[in-house]
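Final report, results section. Input specification for complex C-07:
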Amino acid sequence: MRGTLSDRMGAALLMAPLLLFLILAYAWPFLGVVKWSFTLPTPGLGQYHALLTDELVQSVFIRTLRIAAIVTVVSVTAAYAITVVWVRGSPVQRVLAEFCILVPFWISVLTRAFGWVALLSNRGLINTWLQSIGFISEPLTLVRNEFGVIVGMSHFLIPFAVFPLASAMRSLDERVLLAARGLGSSRMRTFWTVFVPMTRSGIIGSALITFVFSLGFFVTPAILGGGRSVMIAELIYLRIFQSPDWGLGAAISVVLVVFVGALMALLFRYVKPKQLV
Amino acid sequence: MQQPGRAAEIKANGIGKSFGSFRALDNLTLDIGRGEFLTLLGPSGSGKTTFLMILAGFVQPSEGKLFSDGVDITHRPAEQRAAGMVFQGYALFPHMSVEQNIAFPLKVRKKSASEIKSRVGEMVERVGLRGHEKKLPSQLSGGQQQRVALARALVFEPGVLLLDEPFSALDKSLRGQMQAEMKRLHQETGTTFVFVTHDQSEALALSSRVAIFNHGKLLQVGRPDEVYDRPANRFVAEFLGEINMLPVKGVRPADNGATGLCEDRAVNMRCKAEAIKGDAILAIRPEDMSIAPEASVNQNGIAATAIASTYLGAATKLDLTTRQGAKVTVSVPNEVAAAALSNGNSVWLTWPAEKGFLLPDGGQ
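Structure output:
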């Protein structure tokens, strides 16, 4: 939409408070972090060099990417199924799906993480139930490891993965699906060869959002990982708050922000912002 | 390329469809012959599209039965009916190339790669899309997309091709071109075509038979000239083209037809009046009426006053009012119209006895 000059002035004025807040609360402090990464403890590229050689940092990076990738696949798959029901189900199914999508937004991330601990821990609901029916004798390790982190993060991210998919499914022309059936294609085949490819932009948007969110997760991995499955955000926290290694923490932060920025740029090449809500 | 054996013969028997309290289609019985080009014509909401969707299998009828070549297919799902369908807006697969779109129904039918290749190639040739095979639908013009839709619907040699207002998105010149092309494809494939439109000139130009719908009811089926010249009722008469309605009093059978009083003058009609006695409506197409300088005893005619004229190039359309206030439109040669208007606008309207038909007074 291209408005007149005064329209654009109006829009700029309306956006100004948010922009100002973002500059003061995020951009300016972040420049400070960038500065630390080049100056602490001594000026130079030392921390970036350490980042490339430090095995612990590298293993955390790799674990973070791995968890983010698995969480993305799990979340987008689950979200796809829910969204199909939400957008194309019967009226009752739609209401149920909407409930499942919206309720998680009302519960804090912390509450949900502890909820999963109660379900997944050695003496949690799942293990005691499985033991009581004699399915297992020793409790399964479901939490304080990567599995628990993946479960908790996926649960948190599924609702976010839903919206780009719903937007793609809603804009799909119903007649194209009818056409496929009329040409002899079974429902299954129509779903895989027509419906899924036609929602491609939604899948890309959904996957990138989930992946980017996963990279910066802190609370869920900290609680459900139990210190054994440390991700990037927790590592930064440990470097800054529990060791005097501010420079390295800052360098990791900068790398994370640049990486996420690059992913977001990629995201907006594939999907328009309005398709994400 | 005539393949009449493949064309399907369809029988609809007492088909009805209700959506809640809305009666979309009521007790429809219709035979569609092998290889015929049948047009379903009617205003929007008349039930023509509902019937097409029932034929395709996308909509289940509330009652009645549907037979294809004598087999009951009422409850057969769309994907097993093997009817080709061209949708309004084409409904091409946007993520597939022209070639892939056309190959889709063959792939579904698990044809061999070599057969798919040769049949797609043949179809691309036939609809004139050579050179566009690798393009996506979004890279094609409206007319080209239309051709892809036709090719995709015909490539698996369906027994029947269903077309839902396929030309509504095209401009007028392209429309004419596509109509000609569709007629050619019908002749080449010999398949049964069922075509939905609300454009009566399109229906008359293309079809071997026209079925006219209104308010969920099938009103009349017949050859284009039959429904145009002898409409079953007033709605059909008016829907198929402009028509003049003149009240006639005291209709009774006479030699060779019927006779009655129109605006206090005796008029003769060649049409039969068995069912109609007393007061009726005489319906005459504008092109069947002409203007004479003065009354003639041997010819049907009434006095009228010209109130407006519209120059149409090849002819002039004159709007007139009769002495008793009926509105009449005639299409006459330009010089006749000019003469009529220069003569104080008072004219004599005439028509031959064999033109026009009688409809019950006031009724539908």
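Chain A has a mean pLDDT of 88. Chain A touches chain B at residues 173, 175-176, 178-187, 189, 193-194, 197-198, 200 (CB under 8 Å). This concludes the modelling results for the funded period.
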